[in-house]
Every structure is written in structure tokens, then in C-alpha cells.
């Protein structure tokens, strides 16, 4: 995964509470980094959760989350999480993510998050709203 594949980056600094006894980011925190970056990516795109989803009785379910640990990330490291929409399906949305040292090229970690749109209370897929899809394209 290359830095040039991303046009959006969310900057973070690794906090002491996020590292393990080996001095590297504990594995579960990568998903938190991904989630935070996706939230900010959508905010920057104009996404309004209440207006676009909950007011229509819709929500997202996470159906897949993968993380590949390519290089260790240590305490106080300034990182950037790249986010892009890799695929838009009828009811699903796939995000590709990459973690990089600030302003550096090598990918330290990469991942994929897949959400499925559903009608609240049904746990059944529902087509993505057209205005939401248009916001992402």
C-alpha cells in the first residue's frame, strides 16, 4: 500500500497508554485509529450521521475489520492514517486504510473496514442512500 493511494490523512500521536510492554502500539488500538480516521474522513466529506442516517431509520453494521502489522509503531510517534473508499456496493461500503509515519512513505500498517447499511431494528441490509454515495464520490 502506497501513501499516494490516499488523498485524506488524519494525524495522530501515539500516547503512552496505547503501547504495550514491548513499547509498541497494542494491537487493538489500530482499530481505534482506523475508526477515528474514518469518522474524521466522513466529517470532512460532509457526513451528518443524524441527518443522513438515524433520521431515516438507518445505521451501519461493521461486518469485517482487518489489520496487517507491517512495522512496529512506538510511543510518541507522529503518524498519519490514510483513508479512502475502496468500494461502494449496493448496501456496503469498504474503506482501505494505511498508517504512515508523519510525512513518510513506508506503510507501517494497513487495513480494511467493511460496513453494511441496515434498517434499524431489522439487522437486514438496506441500500445505501444515493445522497450519501454521491457525497463520497
Automatic annotation (TrEMBL):
Gene3D superfamilies: Hotdog Thioesterase (3.10.129.10). The keyword Hydrolase applies. SUPFAM superfamilies: Thioesterase/thiol ester dehydrase-isomerase. GO terms for molecular function: fatty acyl-CoA hydrolase activity. Keywords: Hydrolase. The keyword Hydrolase applies. PANTHER family: 4-HYDROXYBENZOYL-COA THIOESTERASE FAMILY MEMBER, NOVEL THIOESTERASE SUPERFAMILY DOMAIN AND SAPOSIN A-TYPE DOMAIN CONTAINING PROTEIN (0610012H03RIK). NCBIfam families: YbgC/FadM family acyl-CoA thioesterase. Belongs to the 4-hydroxybenzoyl-CoA thioesterase family. This is Acyl-CoA thioesterase. It comes from Desulfatitalea alkaliphila.
